[in-house]
């Protein structure tokens, strides 16, 4: 499989400008994520962002390309349940074909390599990782790269770079590390490219247990703009009673956004907590739903 990002920046807009917009909208997005069972007014959401409704609507539309009202519709329970039904059928087809098969089930292009059990036990010994922070449409992000592909992508809030870096480095404690802001920025541009079909495949290097990798491979089969339950993921890997373990594996996904753990939600349609914040999860889901509609 091969990977090209589903998220596109606005034409001509740098990732830095997009990240700045996201930072201003994060409080509003947090309110939207917590108000999934109802439709808060524009005035309520704008107040959460500390803006006038007029100013908020303009800033929001610049960030995502649609109005706040339309964005909210993508996060309702009815919309979520419709997307869950769709993704379940896709995962059934993926399981029938074999999760590691070459079949293209949607427009996500992924090339991935999984670490061997022996390498995993060595905890990164002999692995050389280049890392750095960069801007993204969803705020400050940490990217970690090996010569075998992107191995880490995490998000940081204001003043939270050090704990995010410590957490990600702790996954490969025996690896050697080199910081490069320039290489991280170049990778961010590639990950959040404006065109899915204009770039070569992005290799990713999955570093986890056999069970975790099976869950992450199943996530890679969930189309952009769709959603999946933890139970359906468990069924897709042939272990339908393992929903709780699947949830834990989703939470340990080291390559956020590319391996789309944000698309996993509860069976009742509600968003579950996300490692990088429920606001960011809502932002990603609404953004992808908007891109889905625009490309239909």
Structure, explained:
The protein is α/β, with parallel strands linked by helices. 46% of the residues lie in helices and 13% in strands. Strands 4-3-2-5 form a four-stranded mixed beta sheet. The longest helix is centred in the N-terminal third of the chain and has 21 residues, at 77-97. The chain is globular, with a radius of gyration of 18 Å. The two termini are 23 Å apart. The model is unreliable at 1-13 and 97-108 (pLDDT under 50).
Question: How would you concisely characterize the structure shown here?
Answer:
The protein is built from 12 helices and 8 strands.
Could you give me the name of the CATH homologous superfamily of the domain at 80-265? Winged helix-like DNA-binding domain superfamily/Winged helix DNA-binding domain
Architecture of the domain at 80-265 in CATH?
Orthogonal Bundle
Task: Classify the beta-strand content into a percent band.
Answer: 5-15%
Overall radius of gyration: 18 Å
Helix percent reads 40-55%
Q: Could you spell the SSE succession in H and E letters?
A: HHHHHEHEEEHEHEHEHHEH
Counted beta strands: 8
CATH class of the domain at 80-265: Mainly Alpha
**Strand order across the biggest sheet?**
4-3-2-5
């Amino acid at each position: 499989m091969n990977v090209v990002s589903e998220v596109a920046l606005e034409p001509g807009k740098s990732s830095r400008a997009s990240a700045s917009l996201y930072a201003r909208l994060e409080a509003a997005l947090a309110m939207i994520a917590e108000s999934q069972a109802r439709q808060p007014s524009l005035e309520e959401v704008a107040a959460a962002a500390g803006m006038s409704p007029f100013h908020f609507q303009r800033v929001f539309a610049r960030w995502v390309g649609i109005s706040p009202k339309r964005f909210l519709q993508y996060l309702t329970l009815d919309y979520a349940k419709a997307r869950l039904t769709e993704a379940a059928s896709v995962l059934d087809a993926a399981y029938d074909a074999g999760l590691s098969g070459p079949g293209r089930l949607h427009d996500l292009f992924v090339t991935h390599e999984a670490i061997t059990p022996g390498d995993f036990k060595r905890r990164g010994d002999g692995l050389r990782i280049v890392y750095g922070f960069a801007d993204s449409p969803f705020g400050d992000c940490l990217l970690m790269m090996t010569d075998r592909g992107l191995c880490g992508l995490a998000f940081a809030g204001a003043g939270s770079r050090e704990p995010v870096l410590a957490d990600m480095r702790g996954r490969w404690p025996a690896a050697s590390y080199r910081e490069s802001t320039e290489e991280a920025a170049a990778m961010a541009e590639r990950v959040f490219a404006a065109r899915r079909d204009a770039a070569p495949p992005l290799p990713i290097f999955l570093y986890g247990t056999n069970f975790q990798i099976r869950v992450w491979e199943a996530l890679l089969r969930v189309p952009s703009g769709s959603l999946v339950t933890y139970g359906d993921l468990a069924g897709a890997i042939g272990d339908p009673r393992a929903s709780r373990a699947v949830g834990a594996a989703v939470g340990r996904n080291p390559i956020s956004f590319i391996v789309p753990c944000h698309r996993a939600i509860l069976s009742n349609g509600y968003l579950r907590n996300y490692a990088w914040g429920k606001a960011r999860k809502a932002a990603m889901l609404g953004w992808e739903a908007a891109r889905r509609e625009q490309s239909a």
